[in-house]
Amino acid sequence: MKNISVGDFSIGLKSRPFIIAEMSGNHNQSLDRAYRIIDAAISAGAHAIKLQTASPDGLTLNIDSPDFQILDKESLWYGKNLYQLYEIAITPWDWHAPIFEYCQKKGIIVFSSPFELKAVDFLEELDAPLYKIASFELVDTQLLRRVAKTGKPVILSTGMATLSEIETAVNTVRDQGNDQIVLLKCTSTYPAKPSDTNLLTIPHLRDAFKTIVGLSDHTMGVGASCAAVAMGATVIEKHFTLARADGGVDSAFSLEPHELKILVEETERAWQALGAVEYGGSKNERNSLKFRRSIYVSRDMVAGEVLTENNIRVIRPGFGLAPKYYEIVLGRRVNQDLKKGTAFSWNYIG
Prior knowledge:
The protein has about 350 residues and is α/β, with parallel strands linked by helices.
């Protein structure tokens, strides 16, 4: 799999994790707050800001029948119908241009999740560098084709999708000649339980579809994201807010600035720690040999003297002959004078 280039960032196994701060509706309908969220994400070290480009009318109907109501009492949005939720959750379209301009001025990548066909055309006018398809839209093949035709990288959030549905989505994008695909493991509950996250799916996704993989993480904290990197995730998306106490549609499962900073630092550490399959210690471990044991001369010896328990010992450091040879060398004669504290070697027998 080739790396995917977005701006100055290269996404792939050989690059540090690409960290996306999802603003979603955490701007709370304030453009000034949106700018402050961007600044906080930059200070925390995020690599990209993601918006959502949608309209209530493009998503649903303003109807109060049970099909359109949020009836789950445990939901963050209980009591609203879908239209009412999207009215407060969307980022106004006339904010997009100033937000894109602000991010470009500040040097952070900005892109969006389109939720309808005209949103893709709108984002193309803003020269969005990549696209994200939300998990609930993964089955919208019309939207997938339109995004794929841009020729830009496409991040697909898998959410509730079956293996067959993911295959259809990937093939839909590839059929348009676009193979710049990232698949995100995602759990479509808000917040998500770690026990429902199933990170072992990440390497399976990569192997099944030969794509770059990542995690859209709705769990609390950063543990799942760090573990995902260890499983091969190279993209991490997290909802982000200035303070959960400020409220907002996604605030309850969003990271605060100090937590996003930890996420950036710890996922990069996890990536650096992956390394390669290696045994025997690295170059940087060489100095630690002094804490291993080996065979040393424990008193002055003269040439021809027999090796006994009285003149050699297994002690620290570990620069001499390995302890497993201790019984083998006992009773042999040394071929030269040896000082106490000499690291023993086969060269001294003969």
